[in-house]
Amino acid sequence: MTNDVPMRLTPAPADPTITFFEAVGGEDTFRLLVDEFYAGVADDPLLRPMYPEEDLGPAAERLRLFLIQYWGGPSTYQEQRGHPRLRMRHAPFTVGPAERDAWLRHMRHAVETLNLPADQERTLWDYLERAAHFMVNTME
């Protein structure tokens, strides 16, 4: 007798109870993303001066916690730092098109190293790209 289960021609719909955070691999994925991103920032002459700490560790932790919370993980970022207020927190720094493009270059590389399925990569990248454009505070 043959199997009576119909063959699927399209993928099963995503489980609406699973967050993007969980779907992409949780904290480990965001740790890899942020670590790879800051490895590039560490040697970037345009971006590195924007990070006042001697060690990029505190900035990496803030970004990691923010992204984890944004994508549906624990709300540790808000518990520790309050509302993200991204533009306000970046206001003391000159963020022009060159800084935005450098940030995007390092982040693009970091996203690609995750080897996410195309739809997840596109979702993540679309957000990061919009966020980078939103941070621009000067056209100089």
Automatic annotation (TrEMBL):
<dbReference type="Pfam" id="PF01152">
    <property type="entry name" value="Bac_globin"/>
</dbReference>
<keyword id="KW-0349">Heme</keyword>
<keyword id="KW-0479">Metal-binding</keyword>
<dbReference type="InterPro" id="IPR044203">
    <property type="entry name" value="GlbO/GLB3-like"/>
</dbReference>
<keyword id="KW-0813">Transport</keyword>
<dbReference type="InterPro" id="IPR012292">
    <property type="entry name" value="Globin/Proto"/>
</dbReference>
<comment type="similarity">
    <text>Belongs to the truncated hemoglobin family. Group II subfamily.</text>
</comment>
<dbReference type="InterPro" id="IPR009050">
    <property type="entry name" value="Globin-like_sf"/>
</dbReference>
<protein>
    <submittedName>
        <fullName>Globin</fullName>
    </submittedName>
</protein>
<dbReference type="InterPro" id="IPR019795">
    <property type="entry name" value="Globin_bac-like_CS"/>
</dbReference>
<keyword id="KW-0408">Iron</keyword>
<dbReference type="InterPro" id="IPR001486">
    <property type="entry name" value="Hemoglobin_trunc"/>
</dbReference>
